[in-house]
Amino acid sequence: MAGNTFGKIFKLTTFGESHGTALGGIIEGCPAGIALDFDAIKSEMQRRKPGQSAIVTQRKEEDEVQFLSGIFEGKTTGTSIGFIIPNTNQKSDDYSHIKDSYRPSHADYVYEKKYGIRDYRGGGRSSARETASRVVGGSIAKQIIPEIKINAFVSSVGTIFIDKPYQELDFTKIDSNAVRCPDEATAQLMENHIKEIKKQGDTVGGTITCVIQNVPIGLGEPVFDKLHAELGKAMLSINAVKGFEFGSGFCGAQMKGSDHNDLYNLDGTTKTNLSGGIQGGISNGMDIYFRVAFKPVATLLQKQEHLNNKGQIEVQQGKGRHDACVVPRAVPIVEAMAALVMADYFLMDKINK
Amino acid sequence: MAGNTFGKIFKLTTFGESHGTALGGIIEGCPAGIALDFDAIKSEMQRRKPGQSAIVTQRKEEDEVQFLSGIFEGKTTGTSIGFIIPNTNQKSDDYSHIKDSYRPSHADYVYEKKYGIRDYRGGGRSSARETASRVVGGSIAKQIIPEIKINAFVSSVGTIFIDKPYQELDFTKIDSNAVRCPDEATAQLMENHIKEIKKQGDTVGGTITCVIQNVPIGLGEPVFDKLHAELGKAMLSINAVKGFEFGSGFCGAQMKGSDHNDLYNLDGTTKTNLSGGIQGGISNGMDIYFRVAFKPVATLLQKQEHLNNKGQIEVQQGKGRHDACVVPRAVPIVEAMAALVMADYFLMDKINK
Amino acid sequence: MAGNTFGKIFKLTTFGESHGTALGGIIEGCPAGIALDFDAIKSEMQRRKPGQSAIVTQRKEEDEVQFLSGIFEGKTTGTSIGFIIPNTNQKSDDYSHIKDSYRPSHADYVYEKKYGIRDYRGGGRSSARETASRVVGGSIAKQIIPEIKINAFVSSVGTIFIDKPYQELDFTKIDSNAVRCPDEATAQLMENHIKEIKKQGDTVGGTITCVIQNVPIGLGEPVFDKLHAELGKAMLSINAVKGFEFGSGFCGAQMKGSDHNDLYNLDGTTKTNLSGGIQGGISNGMDIYFRVAFKPVATLLQKQEHLNNKGQIEVQQGKGRHDACVVPRAVPIVEAMAALVMADYFLMDKINK
Amino acid sequence: MAGNTFGKIFKLTTFGESHGTALGGIIEGCPAGIALDFDAIKSEMQRRKPGQSAIVTQRKEEDEVQFLSGIFEGKTTGTSIGFIIPNTNQKSDDYSHIKDSYRPSHADYVYEKKYGIRDYRGGGRSSARETASRVVGGSIAKQIIPEIKINAFVSSVGTIFIDKPYQELDFTKIDSNAVRCPDEATAQLMENHIKEIKKQGDTVGGTITCVIQNVPIGLGEPVFDKLHAELGKAMLSINAVKGFEFGSGFCGAQMKGSDHNDLYNLDGTTKTNLSGGIQGGISNGMDIYFRVAFKPVATLLQKQEHLNNKGQIEVQQGKGRHDACVVPRAVPIVEAMAALVMADYFLMDKINK
Q1: Between chains, do B244 and A258 touch, taking CB under 8 Å as contact?
Q2: Tens of pLDDT, residues C81-126
Q3: Is the C-alpha dihedral spanning A218, A219, A225, A230 positive or negative?
Q4: D117 and C CB contact within 8 Å
Q5: Average pLDDT over residues B12-38
Q6: In degrees rounded to 5, what are phi and psi of residue A334?
Q7: How far does the CA of residue D284 sit from the closest CA of chain B (Å)?
Q8: Range in A112-126, B263-277, D206-220, D227-241 with the lowest mean pLDDT
Q9: Which residue, A20, A264, B212, D163, has fewest beta-carbon neighbours within 10 Å?
Q10: What is the pLDDT of residue D90?
């Protein structure tokens, strides 16, 4: 029940704390005979890792993936793929200040209460560093379903929003700026805002929009394992996520049926797509799109009250190298989780063929 | 992979189409020795069933649950609980008009594409009638965790919102009106709006807020099976749901960390609760609260374009007895799914004890 | 964890006690569009049910299956198939004599210790009556894989064994006698032996051999879910089973490698088949064959010592209608479980295609 | 579906080929706060590894386990435990002779047919080297249930059997000889026999008996997940296993009920234990004992016919360092798999408390 596995057919099981020897995982259910593109994997890892730009944490993490099994002469063999990502740079960090105290809006307190013990260094298992293993899994998942296109981008930072529908955006521009927002004017505003927030020792939340295109009709399982329900769980499992909506989302809840229904074209596509590419939990071939809300990072470079394990409040000055805004680095994580779901449901649907 | 099962320890597996002989399910993992309150189960079923008030569908469904196993002399025995809910009133309905045509924003088209066959009567497996089985499961789940209080209510209909925080609401008033909105003035506005919409042969969406109180600290599993991720999946699996947010939700994505962090009191509770009772996927003992968005019902009592299986558009006049707004009847379903998650995670956590 | 589900893709989940209202189950993962042969299902149920011949129990159980969902106009729809088997004839039996006492070599004592409560009537959930649901599942499984031939037969009763290899037997003769032994001379000896044992108020054990033919190459999953490991678990889950061996089995453990290795023919078949059709957990296209050991039925029509719940030994005279030898009626159960495994692994392998 | 995971609560997921970079796995569901005995783990690894004595293969495998996560300051933290076992000595072996040919009674042929590709070096994923990861998992499992005693030993080699019941054996003598047979006279006969077989370039099968003592009453789940069914699957998943029997086993199938039933003592124990410590799939507190049949190792140091991928038979001379009899080294593997099952069912039963 330990919650370290994602997926049913294409499965990723992960391990690792932020300051242990290594992170890693096992990928199961990867079809045999796929000639893996290792550069693509490396490139996804680069997108997630800290220190890429001025607006993200300057922590150095090499995030080099070592594959240990399941690949022979460059091709997948159908057996489980083990991998590790050594923690090369963490050893020297000093976390003694939080050994006996619980940071606000972190998981320190609940881990201690649940398990009676916690690896306090860098958040241990609850650290977002864990998502590195997800990106490995996701980048392999993408290679199983090359025809399905998955693009995520930052759609808001604080109260700065892109004010265009995704159809008007050029996804090739996503990585052209540090924020990963494909609308360049908005990106500039966001970047400035993040720098300002950072200067204050504060942090800010944001949202990521993800668009999945060229999806075959029929992916998704009725009732409890609807495609969007699994996408929602996937996103909500990412650190700091507070909300998920797809298609018309929360706005749709304000609409009338006569405005909301997507009428058909003769070829089975629909004139509008408020449904977000999914009907009754099953893909209908239209674009799947959803939006994910991230709260502001809890670690502030300010003085803050902690609770310690003697039941006292103590004031600590936040320090270290932390993101002022997590969403730019979360873009590849959202894509990775989306890819894990899509590959899993793609393989699942083969049973029906 | 068929997606008919929810839960890991406390599991509900369901079957049934809207116009088959019966719906039903199997509940596994229910602890032994619980003296079931059958009136409470019946009462939850009553809350979900059609025809309760002027603003919901006037369809008659008796929704009488027959328990077939797992209960001996009124007590659970620890073995699987089989149950059925006969479909007593559906036989006579005429669905020949949609036999060969796909209603917009329904699952008709994708079922046909995925399976090559569909029980077209009343939506078959994709009908919301399937949620009756969820309410049976949920009402038993509630009896496993009597100390945990779960209250859902309608927080918006169309653009009419309750403008108070949930702390100012009296949950005992939820069932005092047809809309299931505990704020009476707002409830009246909502009810009038739904009647107006109904007169137009139209439908309208809405949101449900759910508050879970008195939760033990420590429920939830790290990484992929975070408590809120499972709650999100549970809600997103309900028909017509388009979004889920918990704690600060999408608003939290606009905030700064210094405003968002929940500072501790000396007893481990927090002064604010923007986290929504969950840290790192694990309950912290504060109230869990979340909001669920429902799109407007797709079946309109208007003329609408359907696609037929010859690839033609045909105009059909919607008819029959349907809800103009689904949220009042969805309240017990949201509670049921929340109860399934909480009971499951409650039992899961016993392994750690 | 409750153990009521068998299978991963093609899944059977069951419920029901021997003296409750009904037994039943849910079949998930059945491919869509299969025109079910209901007579075949009925016929399998007939083979399992009591009262078919002089050598089995004369208890009357109608074992009529009612399908409630997942089937539309005679064809499977891909959604979950719910079914019930009403317990029509059990109500009047008197089980008050075992209410407070534990029969030797029955599960009465361990159920009471594990759950603190038990439905004592007829063994409750531990009754072999539960296998009726397995036969429903297995008879549908057979229809998914019509090309794979599954034949089980009684290969020994007590110390009376068939002394021929299965290749010399005519499987069409299996149902030609009450023992379900295709070798008629041996069948006669077995039948006489069972009648003799029955006269003594005693019972006797036996073995069933099962042969699975025309299996595609490649079914089975490496490491923990080897095809024969799942077959073994399937058989060991049947009431009264004490052992499982496949291919050369326990005899193989006495052999030398030079005698045991199966050398290849040019077409990939093997000259011998001591492997039993499975290499490294994966089918190689040769016949799969295995043997299952059943202990003698524990209920004797004799005086026997019971333990009661006051910690006393009491002598009770066994009574009622019970099998003197369970293996003839277990033949369709062995076939059903084999079919469940083969259909599941057949569908599982489609993911690799 | 890939079959690399064993267990439901206490789960072991493994990866690794015999000649890849490393083997390894992830252990989930290990309770928090256990001070691990790393020497005990190392000692179990030593028992399994090649080269321990004159009668086993002289291959050198260091089998050093590196733990990467889930352990903090020597104690388990409740999070997933990742580990690797580097393949230090395999690189230089030459397997080009089997690159295009399939050894008899090995999995070469079926892997190629199932996956269209195989890592032919040393059997790849089908190599018994994979069991090293099982021993890691099993040795941690043992530490979760220290009160339960698990002892396996060699009970036969070829046609040489221990002729005593296990109650007359001294389990502390198991590791006192190279064969791991606690009866010294028999051990000597076995050892001589293996040496003789080895001289012939041949191999021989054998059986292992395992005894599990001091088991709490109530472990096991009814119907499909009976305790002995899971033990059976666990054993059958080990390379080269052809059969499993528990309690009276295949002999029990020859007995009469009046001889087979285990009568109660006043304290709930039984006078005999033909049931093998399990009733209806649930432990009754008596010793659990079972026997596992291993076929002779397929790799012979003789000339043998292979099939090659051009559909030709070719004669190859077996070479290298291989076991003439696998059972002595399989003893710790049997114990490991038994420990995995017992720890899993022990934790599972906590849900009922």
Answers
A1: no
A2: 999 999 987 655 678 888 889 999 999 999 999 999 999 988 899 9
A3: negative
A4: no
A5: 96
A6: -60, -45
A7: 18
A8: A112-126
A9: D163
A10: 64
pLDDT band at C223, cuts 50/70/90?
Answer: very high
CA–CA dist B339, B137 (Å, integer):
9
Strand, coil or helix: what is C178? coil
Q: Name the residue with tokens 């005429």.
A: B94
The residue range of the domain holding B257 is 5-350
Q: Does A224 touch chain B (CB under 8 A)?
A: yes
Q: Report pLDDT for D319.
A: 81
Alpha carbons B325 and B327: distance in angstroms, whole number:
6
Q: Which amino acid is at D348?
A: M
Instruction: Report in angstroms the alpha-carbon separations of B264 from A105, A122, A309, B248, D28.
Output: 9, 20, 12, 17, 31
D351 vs B9, B79, B222: nearest CB: B9
Estimate the crossing angle of helix C131-144 against helix C38-48, to 10 degrees.
Answer: 140
For residue B146, which of B36, B10, B25 has the smallest C-alpha distance? B36
Q: For chain B, where are the E strands, in sequence order?
A: 5-6, 11-15, 22-28, 66-67, 71-72, 75-76, 81-86, 101-102, 149-157, 160-161, 206-213, 241-246, 278-279, 282-283, 288-294, 303-308, 313-317
Say yes or no: A92 contacts chain B, CB-CB below 8 A.
Answer: no
DSSP D64-86: --EE-SSEETTEE-SS-EEEEEE
Which residue from A79, A222, A352 is facing C31, i.e. has the nearest CB?
A352
A222 contacts C79? CB cut-off 8 A:
yes
Residues 251-310 of A with CB under 8 A from B: 252-258, 260-264, 266-268, 270, 274-276, 279-284, 293-300, 302, 304-307
Q: Is A13 on the interface with D (CB under 8 A)?
A: yes
Chains that touch C (3 or more CB pairs under 8 A): A, B, D
- Report CB contact under 8 Å: C1, D351: yes
Mean pLDDT by 10 residues, chain A (353 residues): 92 95 97 97 92 73 90 96 89 76 95 94 90 98 98 98 97 96 98 96 98 98 97 98 98 98 97 98 98 96 94 90 92 98 97 84
Of C1, C29, C66, the CB nearest to B29: C1
Of A22, A78, A119, the CB nearest to D72: A119
Q: Strands B11-15, B5-6: parallel, antiparallel or unpaired by DSSP?
A: antiparallel
Q: How many domains does chain B have?
A: 1
Q: C31 in contact with A at a CB cutoff of 8 Å?
A: yes
Q: How many CB atoms lie within 10 A of CB C176?
A: 13
Cβ proximity of C331 and C316 under 8 Å:
no
The whole-angstrom separation of Cα A112 and Cα A131 is: 22
> Six-digit token pair at C215?
């299996």
For residue C9, give the nearest of A31, A351, A353 by CB distance: A351
Tokens 């489609």 correspond to C350
Look at residues C38, C128, C74, C41 and name the one whose alpha carbon lies nearest to residue C336.
Answer: C41
Q: Is the pLDDT of residue C299 over 90?
A: yes
Task: Please name the chains neighbouring B, where neighbouring means 3+ C-beta pairs under 8 angstroms.
Answer: A, C, D
Contact across the interface for D31 and B222, Cβ inside 8 Å = no
Torsion, Cα of C153, C156, C157, C158 (10° steps): -160
Please give the Cα distance from D216 to B192 (Å, whole number).
63
* B274/B267 Cα distance (integer angstroms): 18
- What CATH code is carried by the domain that includes residue C121? 3.60.150.10
Look at B32 and D353 and tell me if their CB atoms are within 8 Å. Answer: no
Partner residue opposite C4 with nearest CB, options B21, B72, B80: B80
CB atoms within 10 A of CB B167: 9
| Cα separation, A89 vs B163, whole angstroms | 49
Report chain C residues whose CB lies below 8 A from the CB of A352. 31-32, 78
